[in-house]
């Protein structure tokens, strides 16, 4: 906009208009900023973070109509998270970042980090998850994840080491690891391990076909 020395309007150039932001636009900007901060800082599911913030925002109807759907926002939020996600290690020598070793409520998530024949084994579980596992009489290897293990292979020595670690964890919690049945896909090394493994005086007897309940 152009004026003369007496502030009289002369004309304008360009097609740009300046408006104060609408209230719903401000609401939406604040919401997006909160979501981005949580996506970068936390490791939880992006969809859950988005839904939680959307519920907490208490948007007006106008702002809610402008808010992108979770499925539409997920792609850009995934890209944002990848920018701060540690790169995959190229060797077994690395530190597990706090974001992956401590839960959101401050509990330890890495309960064992050991070497077997110079190969690293990391087991992830909270004490609460371990108690759930040790109280179970039936264990399904690929069902509800109580313990997540990063193993260097699927051999009898490795599986024996894992069972020994679980037995030690049970004793630490004043519990016993004595399931009556174990169900898994057919895996010979696992079957051979369970067939000979004795935990707290209880000997497992393994079946020899896929999906057998031990």
From TrEMBL:
At the top level, the lineage of the source is Eukaryota
- State the name under which the record lists this protein: MULE transposase domain-containing protein
Q: Which species is the source of this protein?
A: Adineta steineri
